[in-house]
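Morning, I've got a small favour to ask if you have a moment. It would help a lot if you went through both lines with me. I owe you a coffee for this, so here goes:
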Amino acid sequence: MTDDAPSRPATRGRPEPVQVVKQRRDGALSALVRGVPYITYLGITFERRGDEITAILPFDEKLIGNPALPAIHGGVTAAFLEVTAIIELSWTYLWDDIEAGRIDLEAEDASRRLRLPKTIDFTVDYLRSGLPRDAYARARVNRSGRRYASVHVEAWQDNRSRLFAQATGHFMMPQGLRERE
């Protein structure tokens, strides 16, 4: 995607400066990530371009499940895909409120107040071994309603068209306010 463009006017007839918009979006993504401590343990980071998010799982020896191959552990792969799906779904779910400034995800305690979707089921297709190198993933929300959402996520390493895993998950959406009271 191209660079972020201002999307909400700060004052009548004047768009917000691009840097302000970028900082608000980056702060919101950071708050979402802080809400899931396992993301930090695995070392997963997220890059944002506009409204598109790419998850990155940097290679680390602790991720190896089969040292004979070596290959990334299947549980790590599944966790990477599930975390990517949850962050993408949350980002999509909260986008309008973030853009309108109705939710301040940059506040110190925002990640503790935030309600994330809960996994109902998650099915992983292991297409090939995850090699000992960085992995990338992107999720696509197929359907998102008030109570239920369906998300598809794909992971690759060196070549975007050569996936090593993909998954489909169904999630229960948070009810009531988007932030805990």
About this structure: Residues 1-11, 176-181 have pLDDT under 50 and may be disordered. DSSP finds four helices and ten strands in the chain. The first helix runs from residue 18 to 34.
